[in-house]
Specification:
The protein is of the alpha/beta class. It has helices spanning about 1-15, 75-85, 100-105, 105-110, 120-125, 200-210, 230-255, 260-265, 275-295; strands spanning about 30-35, 40-45, 50-55, 60-65, 90-95, 115-120, 140, 145-150, 150-155, 170, 175-180, 215-220. The two termini are about 30 Å apart. Bound molecules: zinc ion. The site of zinc ion has 7 residues, from loops.
Length: about 300
């Protein structure tokens, strides 16, 4: 069924009947670096469907997330992209959370002299796994840490469980920009990321983020459409989506219908036109069945 749908939408794409998610242009390049509009020194590095923020200052670079899972040259490619922008040294590499799709590939940054910083649970999660492609943090923190470099401040905050138990908010107070990975997708329905989501805590997380001082959100996967950045409205929309999903599954779960029946009956028609709906729905259903049908 999925294969048929994919084939059908590819045919429509070829026929020019529907536009690709990135607009009318041809497929975007695998790797792309863009300065964020209205800033002097904030950049987004994208590799495929993953992206990370880096900040260039007069005293060096603060980079985040190597995003090189399954991309053996991805870490070095990211370092090379930074070197096209500046000859300043890469001083820091900050991990958003412990998932390999965002943080594999840090060796190139270590080799370039960067200090790797993450929430303390990143170390706890990575240590037993010994992933050969993922560098352990040099330094971890519990609640907050501020990096100050060359006149730029980057605030790191752990606000409690949300997507995983190690996901942080990075905020540039002067630029009023935040970088939040996976918990607050921009313009899309959440998908596989639900597998390590704490649903009720994530609602509280988004409320806390909404109360912070910022104007634009850089997501860990390109926002839709056209790789756009998020606003507070996008964050509010994701919160509403989680609340709607939770309420829908609550009925099914408390009626004793988890797993099979509830997962079949679970729908969120209000979001059917959002990118990622068909693919994301089963993950959302499974996660909320866990909550309302198993108490976890
Ligand atoms: Zn993740």
């Amino acid at each position: 069924m999925t294969r048929v749908l994919v084939a059908a939408s590819s045919a429509l794409l070829v026929a020019g009947l529907i536009g690709p998610a990135w607009g009318q242009d041809a497929r975007p390049p695998q790797i792309e670096t863009k300065k964020v509009d209205g800033t002097d020194n904030v950049y987004i590095f994208r590799n495929g469907n993953h992206q990370a923020m880096f900040v260039v200052t007069k005293d060096g670079v603060i980079a985040t997330d190597p995003i090189a899972y399954g991309r053996p040259t991805g870490g070095q490619a990211y370092v090379d992209e930074i070197k096209k922008v500046t000859d300043k040294p890469i001083k820091y590499l900050v991990y958003s959370h412990h998932h390999f799709d965002h943080i594999a590939g840090g060796k190139a940054f270590k080799d370039a002299g960067a200090r790797v910083i993450a929430h303390k649970n990143v170390r706890v999660r990575l240590a037993p796994l010994g992933d050969p492609n993922t560098v352990m943090p040099d330094e971890v923190f519990d609640k907050t840490k501020t990096i100050t470099l060359g006149g730029t401040k980057l605030e790191l905050s752990y606000l409690g469980l949300n997507h995983s138990d190690s996901n942080i908010v990075m905020r540039l107070p002067k630029e009023k920009i935040i970088f939040v990975v996976d918990t607050i997708p921009v313009g899309t329905v959440p998908g596989r990321g639900m597998i390590d989501m704490y649903p009720l805590e994530s609602e509280q997380f988004i409320k806390t983020v909404l109360a912070m001082d910022w104007e634009r959100l850089i997501p860990g996967h390109p926002g839709q459409p056209n790789g756009r950045l998020g606003t507070k409205k996008d964050a509010q929309d994701q919160l509403t989506l989680l609340q709607d999903a939770s309420a829908e599954m609550k009925k099914l779960g408390q009626d004793g219908k988890c797993w099979d029946t509830a997962e079949k009956e679970f729908k969120l028609p209000k979001y059917a036109s959002w990118p990622g709906y068909e693919n994301g729905l089963p993950f959302i259903a499974r996660r909320y069945c866990g909550l309302w049908g198993r108490g976890t």
